[in-house]
Amino acid sequence: MGIDISRTTVTLDIGTDESPAEAVTWSLGPRTGFGLGDVVICHGTPWSSRMWLPLAKRLARDHRVLLWDMPGYGDSITPAEAAPPVDLVAQRRRLAALIDDRGLKRPHVIAHDIGGAVALGAHLFEGVDFASIHLSDIVTLTPWGSPFFRLVAENEEVFAALPLALHRALVHAYIAGAAGPHLPAGWVDELARPWSTPHGQAAFYRQIAALSPAHTAPITARLGAVRAPVRISWGEADPWIPVEQADRLAAALPGDVDLTRFPEVGHLAVLEAPAAFAAEVKGWLSSAGDP
Question: Which positions fall inside the AB hydrolase-1 domain (predicted)?
Answer without folding.
Answer: 39-279
